[in-house]
Amino acid sequence: MSGLRDIVLTDLERAGAFDDAERTFQMTEDEFRLFYEQTARPVWIYLARMTSDDRLADDLLQEAYYRFLRTRTTFESQEHRRHYLFRIATNLVHDHRRRPRRERAGLDDSTPVDLSTDPIDMGERAVRRLDLARAMGKLKARDRSMLWLAYAQGFSHEEIARLLGLRTSSLKALLHRARQRLIALLHGSGERS
Amino acid sequence: MIRTASASHAEGCPREVEVVAMLLDRRSMRIDDEALAAHVDVCESCREVAELTRVMSADHERARREIRVPAAGQVWWRSAVRARLEAVHAAARPLTWSHGVAGACAIGLVIALIGLVWPAVQEATGWIGARALEVAPLGRAAATLMTTTLHGSVALMLVGAVFVLFAPVALYLALADE
Which residues in chain B are closer than 8 Å to A175, comparing Cβ atoms? Predict the structure, then answer.
């Protein structure tokens, strides 16, 4: 299968199909591979947690990297690149949310959360994860992004503010309120279960 | 499990950042700094932050181990194909415009040519009619009919020919974007 893909790729390359495309990208394929290995998983998880839809996360991941490759922004560091990629991912999620409901799937409180049958995932951890997914699903998109970037990805307040287009001074209060809401939801779902 | 911090400050505690950094840096999810750990014990806001960080980063780590993202080469390949297609599409856009302009110029040229040639065509049909009368006086009626028909229908025929010639071009231009 991979052999077939290689043949197709080689043929297209021979025909010069990728020459122009690669010229418009802001990094070489080798640089991209390295950057992708470092960032793809965190970005995918971020997209999946923001949309509650794994398949959509796959699509948005591809779109995020495509937009990233086409950007003409000059990056000062690897961190700057990573933040830019997360900004693209955030914008994609928000764009998706703005689409009419019939065009999008997921983001529904009733969306079943994928609980694997692995015995390790059973018990309290699974319940906690389910609680977290449900509680996150009830938050506003911006609150979800803020909380995830702060407490799962470890972004600084300044970075989150830049990424979400907020003022750093107001971010602390917004983050605090979002945290209170999430805790209240987790507390509530914990009592019910 | 997690308690609501009703009495915490509106913006939380200034040491929250340290708590998050320590928990995320050390994947054991324990606060090893004794002073910070003591602070977390007494600060409700930091305790909440620590709990949320533990829950969310544990979810993140679990997902990180379990998920399968597409290969880098696949993402690169798809991006390259798409960039190529978009480049081709972008390059075709000015061509569509130039096709439109060329089509309009050709139609104008044909109309101008018809205008130029039209007197000569009228003259020729008159001459043919006169010749026909001279050669075959008996076919006068037929010759008159032919001359009248030619005078009346040549314009229509020419217009029809123009439509037949340019209809495919017009169709192509109309459907080019699809």
Answer: 12
| CB–CB contact A176 B72 (8 Å) | no
Determine contact: A13 vs chain B, CB below 8 A: no
Span B68-113, pLDDT tens digits: 899 999 999 999 888 888 887 777 776 677 777 888 888 888 888 8
* CB of A9 less than 8 A from some CB of B: yes
Contact A90, A164 (CB under 8 A): yes
Neighbours of B111 (CB within 10 A): 13
Q: What distance in Å separates residue A77's CA from the closest CA in chain B?
A: 20
Q: Select from B177, B166, B72, B162 the least CA-distant residue to B117.
A: B162
Question: Cβ contact (<8 Å) for B11 and A176?
Answer: yes
Q: How many CB pairs under 8 A join A and B?
A: 137
Span A41-79, pLDDT tens digits? 999 999 999 988 889 999 999 999 999 999 988 888 888
Cα dihedral A51, A52, A55, A58 in deg (nearest 10): 50
Interface predicted TM-score (ipTM): 0.70
Among B8, B59, B82, select the one facing A132 at the smallest CB separation.
B59
- Candidates A17, A68, A16; CA nearest to A43 is A68
**Tally of CB atoms within 10 A around B63:** 20
Distance CA A45, CA A39 (A): 10
Instruction: Give the list of residues 6+ apart from residue A187 with CB closer than 8 angstroms, or none.
Output: B1, B2, B3, B4
Measured between alpha carbons, how far is B4 from A187 in angstroms, rounded to an integer?
Answer: 8
Q: Using the CB atoms, write b or e for B7-27: b if 16+ within 10 Å.
A: ebeebbbebbbbbbebbbeee
Q: Provide the strand spans (E) within chain A.
A: none
Q: Hey, are the CB atoms on B10 and A18 less than 8 Å from each other?
A: no
Residues of chain A with Cβ-Cβ distance to B45 below 8 Å are 176
pTM: 0.63
